[in-house]
Amino acid sequence: MAALKSAKQKLFVKEFLVDLNATQAAIRAGYSAKTANEQGSRLLANVNIQEAIQKGMDKRAAKVEVTAEMVLQHWLDVATADPNEIIHHRRVCCRHCFGHDHEYQWIDHEEYERAVTAVKAATKKGKTPVLPSDYGGYGFDPIIRPHPKCPQCHGEGHGQLHAADTRDLSPQAKKLYAGAKYTVNGLEIKMNDQEQAWDRIARHLGMYKDELKLKGELTVKKLEDLM
What we know:
Layout: H1 7-19, H2 22-28, H3 36-44, H4 47-64, H5 68-80, E1 87-92, H6 109-122, E2 158-163, H7 171-176, E3 177-183, E4 186-191, H8 194-204, H9 220-224
Antiparallel strand pairs: 1-2, 3-4
């Protein structure tokens, strides 16, 4: 490892390898939080620190057998995964779309009988209940696309959010998927940032013309290869 001038610099290198965050690494190494951002940039520009970081990265990569090609492929999978595999908005049919003569369609006879029973129970004594009709028939499927000529919804149906069973996602979509949880507002799906993935790919391939190259063998691009 290249000779470092102080214990703080050695600690900075160690902390930087934890999360590749120069500002936070500077703070944890004992530099002032007020100037940590500037200190982090200055330290990264130091040739000896660059070499120490690169050696640390190389050692870590060799230990876990991670290559630059593997890192690039990971971000490419994230960037090109289809978010619709995880969650999507779809237009589904209304009850009249596929009923006979576009009348109200029931799922099955049991559903219709439950509706009839409910109407009878809600009808005041002495009144004749107005029973629902089953003229539209049975077999309602709530997830098929709307009928384009439905006179009730005019082919629009209604919108529906659908979250997929994440066990069935493709390998690429599984890398895009970052977890889910229930909140007071319902199910929250998290995904990794695809724009950030493309940015990392572009940097990895040196597509940014204004990339700042540091002195010595280590460049900004190399530092970000494993970010």
